[in-house]
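Lab notes, practical 5.
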Amino acid sequence: MTVSVGDRLPSTTLIRATDNGPDSVSSEDFFSGRKVALVAVPGAFTPTCSARHLPGFVDRADEIKAKGVDEIAFTSVNDAFVMNAWAKASDAAGKVTMLADGNGEFARALGLTMDGSKFGMGERSQRYSMIVNDGIVEEINIEAPGEFKISSAEHLLGQL
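Output from the prediction step:
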């Protein structure tokens, strides 16, 4: 079953990518008591994700937060070291929190996985954005395969 508006996010463990190494955080704790713009991508350092998706949120972070969002977080089925390197390479530090879903447990629990095997990527997260308020999904924008439209920073800003 795919998560939808009004659903509470499932309880899993994510790994925050930090300069001091991996930091485990439960999804319940991370999303509790605040509004989070959550974005998922198939992979860090992949073409669309690095050239268009993450830069849009980095560039518009102040505008998004000015609309009442407490934190912007990106997740991907990558390890915390890759996510931290991606944040540094993209100038995202301090603007976007990187949440590693290395084993894909969060993506599977949301019902938002895709098969990237033909690209040598295995099971990955679908591309989406959502607004999560105190653990409850308020908006969700799931991209069609190969698309990048409704999960963009611009689209999400229009929903706030």
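Observations recorded by the TA: The chain has a mean pLDDT of 91. The chain is about 30% helix and 30% strand.
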